[in-house]
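worker-03 picked up job from queue 'complexes'. Input manifest follows; two sequence lines, order preserved.
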Amino acid sequence: MEKTASRTEQNIETPVDQKKYAMVLKWSTRVGLFFILLTFFIYLSGLISPVVPLDKLPRLWVKNSALLNESFGIAIGWGWVNLIFRSDIMAKAALTFLAFVPILCYLTVLPIYIKKREFAMIFIVILEISILALAASGFLKVE
Amino acid sequence: MFFFFLFFLVPHAFAAKDIILAEETSVGIPWWIWPLSLFVFCFGLGIVAVLAGVGGGVLFVPILGTFFPFHMDFVRGAGLMVALAGSLSAGPGLLMRNLASLRLCMPMALIASISSIMGAMVGLALPQNIVRISLGLVILAICFVLLTSKRSEFPEITKRDKIAQILGIHGIYYEITQRKNINWQIQNSHIGLFLFFLVGFIAGMFGLGAGWANVAVFNLVLGAPLKISVASSNFLLSITDTSAAWIYLNNGAVLPIIAVPSVVGMMLGSQVGVRLLALTKPRIVRWLVIILLSVSGLMSILKGFAVI
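worker-03 finished. Artifact:
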């Protein structure tokens, strides 16, 4: 019975777009999580100095994000990239990579829909990539 | 007039006092205690979330916002990263086993992404006390949904709607309890799209994962089988939370010292939770979570009014 069941399960083919999306998702998430742990270790170990000293954080994290960033001259949007060689910003960059993962996945499946001439799906994928890119661009700032 | 007073005047009057109190709580304690306690707390939360069948994100923000001294900006930023990391990790397995459907999620994710960006921007622009009060109200509403919502294992679909037909939204998966393949399709896509807009806005505004609502919309409105609904809801979060997460990241509201221990703790806790699932009574845990959420919701409202 078990064998029949697993044979039946094997008969279900995972759609090619879904399979490709899953592969990119799997590997990019693993890479992202590895870098999150690595950069966080560097941050806590003090090997590289952070922009915001760790011992000052308890006074700062009670204030809103705008005040904290202003106090240390961290620009909003992508301005923080200029400080990439500081340990806390490296850890932030690793977290940011996770937010890139869905964009990567969408870019991977787009050629499949183009090849199949699935215009509705092409439209949805391009629109989603544009929205994620807009959100990622840093143009949408909250003053 | 009453609502104007409730939401705009009272919170402003108490905002300064709130910051001073939080600063006093936070400053006397060495910095390293906080990431450590976050890790332990999120490890426990990860176990409870799996046992109760709710996403970790919905527990994280109200509880952390109430019991830890961090500003709500950073709590919501970390909450989104927690929900994002969890759904990104679970996504590949769910997609490969045909439990989450890419075609089902993509149109819903598009709508929810737009609204979650809007929600995130509104959430970051509002004063902390208003966010706390509205979060408390939303959490109490979620408790009500958790208490009253019914689920249907295999909803009956009479006719696929136009949107589902055009986008080819249907699928097949292996149902292990029945040892057979189940074909599924959906209906009411237009209503589903509208509801996902609302859910996305709330998720973005409060940094909550939206599994509590996604499953209900997939299952009860669109008519997807329960397993497909749960898996697709989990996968959907990886896209909608990303759009809101970008807003928080770009506005400097994600602090690694809060987000990383939370993400790691929650992921490890979820792994333990899965192993404990067979040994516990999920109903009791579910009740505990509802009680815990209700207390956090009420405390969030009281904190918003600076009563505590």
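worker-03 released lock.
Chain A has six helices and no strands.
Residues 44 and 54 of chain A are 8 Å apart (CA to CA).
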